[in-house]
Amino acid sequence: MTGMTSSARPLLNRRLAEFGTTIFAEMSALALSTGSINLGQGFPDTDGPEEVREAAVRALRDGRGNQYPPGPGVPELRTAVAAHQERRYGLSWDPDTEVLVTAGATEAIAAALLALVEPGDEVVALEPYYDSYAACIAMAGGTRVPVTLRPHDGRFRLDLDELRAAVTDRTRLLLINTPHNPTGTVLTREELTAVAELAVERDLLVVTDEVYEHLVFDEAEHLPLATFPGMRERTVTIGSAGKTFSFTGWKVGWITAAPGLVSAVRSAKQFLTYVSSGPFQYAVAEALALPETYFTAFREDMRAKRDLLATGLKDAGFEVFRTAGTYFITTDIRPLGETDGFAFCRALPERAGVVAIPNAVFYDHREAGAPFVRFAFCKRTEVLEEAAQRLKTLAG
């Protein structure tokens, strides 16, 4: 039988068998085939600052980064990352030993988990979680232990007692994400203090995904976990240029951590991509040094878009949860008489010409996420206005 395998064993490694094709691929294909507005996948539909794009062109022309860049990242970018953390949060990192450039935040997550987790280790993650977390824990041979964020007073909250109860003698690492995708929650000082105290008390490592650090709204404040007592030496902090500068295709991310942690993560990372994004690293170094006015304007633009889409979703009949950070809005479809987010999202393109993502894909406890649906608002204003108009058909 030509082309057939003789073994009855499945081709896909059993650790990855549960993951299959991502929901993003399915929903993006549905958007294309139906001509729908894609508010599913979280990427902007316009490029970031012209001067940053020009910096990449300049680097290409000058021959900077066209060959393999240094393994830890180009010195200019590592220096810029350290300066950004110092300026914004008072965190002092050595660019040579405490900063590592990665192929986006996704590789940073993979490299950190592959480096720090051994088979049998438990990893506590906040549920719902970005889909790569589960896959990377599985690839490392770890066991994921979800702690569910639950809606309360219009936002999703962390139950600190549930978090404490999830930690056992087998727990190696806490995987934290704030500002939180998909719920839009930003963990409070009280919540982060409790996370830090637990990590210190139980001697846990922490990987914290802070890629939306510049997208916090209203009274919310982004507080890096590494700034809390006892956390600098045990925390791997992940950042990304894609979300902050709207160049998601460049895939430039980084970690900051103590030398031992950076060395461990680099050991795994060098066998993944080895290096990536050479010329773009130089451009991102310039982007991180943009004046504060850029970051303020970026945040205000996204806040206005959040408000526009949130109003449209309310008018369409959804319950809308308050987004304090990220560029996502989580909604509850039960006021529309619906309970199954998968079925709702698969039917939505035909019903309203809009694509969204069912939050249940981000849960181990699928039933806990069943009625929630995520929309992205990192799109042009006229696209969001058209989407809001189309969604009104749901309200009859």
Summarize the structure.
The protein is of the alpha/beta class and 396 residues long.
Query: What is the radius of gyration computed over CA atoms, rounded to a whole number of angstroms?
Result: 21 Å
Order of helices and strands: HEHHEHEHEEEHEHEEHEHHHEEHEEHEH
Biggest β-sheet, characterized? Answer: 7 strands, mixed
Q: Please count the beta strands (DSSP E, at least 2 residues each).
A: 15
Mean pLDDT: 96
Tell me the distance between the termini.
56 Å
Estimate percent helicity: 40-55%
Q: What fraction strand?
A: 15-25%
Structural class: alpha/beta
If strands are numbered along the chain, what order do they take across the biggest sheet?
2-10-9-8-7-3-4
Please give a structural write-up:
The chain contains 14 helices and 15 strands. The strands form 4 sheets. The protein has a 7-stranded mixed beta sheet with strand order 2-10-9-8-7-3-4, with helices on both faces. α5 links the parallel β3 and β4.
